[in-house]
Write a structure and sequence with these properties.
Layout (H helix, E strand, L loop, with lengths): L1 H21 L20 E6 L1 H4 L4 H11 L5 E6 L10 H5 L16 E4 L12 H17 L3 E5 L10 H16 L2 E3 L1 H11 L15 H16 L18 H19 L3
Parallel strand pairs: 1-2, 1-3, 3-4, 4-5
Helix pairs in contact: 1-7, 1-9, 3-8, 7-9, 8-9
Keywords: Hydrolase, Signal
GO molecular function: hydrolase activity
Protein name: SGNH/GDSL hydrolase family protein
Length: 265
C-alpha cells in the first residue's frame, strides 16, 4: 500500500511538472540575450533588497547546490531593506577595499545581479528612476569588467497581473542594453499555476517563503550555469529545509521554465 501511494505521488508530481513545462510563460517580450558571455562564472555579487536576503539569502540556496557538486563558486550579497536600485552605490561595491578577499579575483566579480524593488520597474512614479539607475549600474558593472544580470521579480500574491508587466518591463530595459535576464517571476507564476498548494509568498503577500527562495535559487543556478538543478539533495538551510518532494518539484519547474525562457534545447 505504501509503495502504491508513493508511486501515485511520483506520477502526480511528474504530471504537474510536465504541465508547467508545456505552458506558455507570462512574458510577451522575448529576451535578446540568451547566454552569458562568461560560460563559467566563479564569483558573483547580489545587489538587491529583502526579496534577496529573505530566508538567510538566496545566495545560500545557490551555494547549497554549488557546494554539493563541488563547483568553484563564491558570492557576496549586499542588500538594503526596501531598496530601489538608486539606493545602491554599485561603483563602491566593485572598488578595491583593504582586506577584501574578492580583490584577488580579476574582475572582482564575474557577474553582478541587479534585483530591483518589487514593483519598481512598473510603478508609474518610479519607472523612470528604475530605467535610469538600471542603465547607470549596467555601465558601471561593465566598466569594472563584470557582467550585469537583471533579475525578473515576482508579483504580489493578490496581484497576479503584475507577473507579465514585471517580466516585460524588465526584459525591455535589459534588451535595450544587451543584458542577460533571469526569469524568477515567470517561474513563480508557473509553479503557482500547477501547484497552488505550494505556498511561495509569506502572509504579507510580498516576500518569499522558504519554497519561494528555493525556487529563486534554483532558477539562478539554472540560468547561471546552463545546467539543471534536478537531482540535488540540498533542501535549503537556515532551519527551513523543504520536503524532498517539494524541492524536487521546484528544481524541475526551474529548469523547464529556464529552458523555455531562453529557447534552450
Amino acid at each position: 500500500m505504501k509503495a502504491a501511494i508513493c508511486l501515485l505521488a511520483a506520477l502526480a508530481l511528474g504530471a504537474a511538472v510536465t504541465a508547467a513545462g508545456a505552458a506558455t510563460l507570462v512574458n510577451t517580450v522575448q529576451p535578446k540575450v540568451t547566454q552569458l558571455k562568461n560560460g563559467a562564472p566563479k564569483t558573483g555579487l547580489y545587489v538587491g533588497n529583502s526579496f534577496t536576503y529573505y530566508n538567510c539569502g538566496v545566495n545560500g540556496y545557490v551555494r547549497g547546490f554549488t557546494k554539493e557538486e563541488k563547483r568553484d563558486w563564491i558570492a557576496r550579497m549586499i542588500t538594503i531593506s526596501g531598496g530601489r536600485l538608486s539606493y545602491h552605490s554599485v561603483k563602491e561595491y566593485l572598488a578595491p577595499h583593504p582586506f577584501d578577499g574578492y580583490d584577488k579575483h580579476k574582475p572582482k566579480f564575474d557577474v553582478v545581479f541587479l534585483q530591483a524593488q518589487s514593483t519598481e520597474p512598473i510603478n508609474p512614479k518610479e519607472q523612470a528612476n528604475f530605467n535610469e539607475w538600471f542603465a547607470r549600474h549596467v555601465a558601471t558593472i561593465r566598466e569594472a569588467g563584470s557582467e550585469p544580470i537583471a533579475i525578473i521579480t515576482w508579483a504580489l500574491k493578490d496581484k497576479p497581473e503584475q507577473y507579465q508587466k514585471l517580466a516585460d518591463a524588465t526584459i525591455t530595459q535589459a534588451n535595450k542594453l544587451g543584458v542577460y535576464t533571469i526569469p524568477v517571476g515567470p517561474a513563480f507564476a508557473e509553479s503557482l499555476k500547477t501547484r497552488p498548494d505550494l505556498i511561495l509568498h509569506m502572509p504579507d503577500k510580498r516576500h518569499p517563503t522558504a519554497a519561494g527562495s528555493y525556487l529563486y535559487g534554483s532558477v539562478i543556478y539554472s540560468a547561471l550555469f546552463h545546467k539543471s538543478p534536478e537531482g540535488f539533495k540540498f533542501l535549503g538551510a537556515c532551519e527551513k529545509p523543504l520536503k524532498a518532494e517539494d524541492a524536487k518539484y521546484l528544481q524541475q519547474v526551474a529548469w523547464k521554465v529556464t529552458k523555455e525562457f531562453y529557447g534552450w534545447k
